[in-house]
Amino acid sequence: MPPARAKLFVAAMFREDSKLERAIVELEEAFGRLDLRSEVFEFNFTSYYEAEFGRDLKKLFLGFEEPVERDKLVEAKLKCLEIEDKLAVERRRMVNLDPGYVTLDNVVLSTTKERAHRIYLGQGVFAEVTLMYIRGKYQPLPWSYADYRTEIAQRFFLAARERLKKALRLGKSFSGS
Fold it and tell me: For the whole model, what pTM was predicted?
């Protein structure tokens, strides 16, 4: 029996609201209707992206209504890379889209960067457990990014978990359900 489905999310980083809205249209075409959106917050945790995006970056988390099979994470990452390329201007990304999924036990994030704590999934995509659900909260791990440690992230992932629990109770937990 396959594991219960998960709630797909995308962490979106951007400067211009119009670019984010274009990305959301593309994301909904690829993954279905959004049912959850975090507050937008300043992404000022690192200067890593400044050379490509400039300053004054913003970020938010987006959750999709229909639970997904967990093995779709590679496909989701590749689709997000495709959308980033489609919306790029002069080969510079206008949005950074990082998909992952929420389960009742953890938050898993996809990436193309290999590190010691990441598992290779195929096609250049790795996954890491970024947060673990313990004692009513999603707890960070030593490698969890700073933006995943925020109260905004906590509220989003707890809300995503509740929506997932409801969907699983309604029978959307396995293929074909």
Answer: 0.93
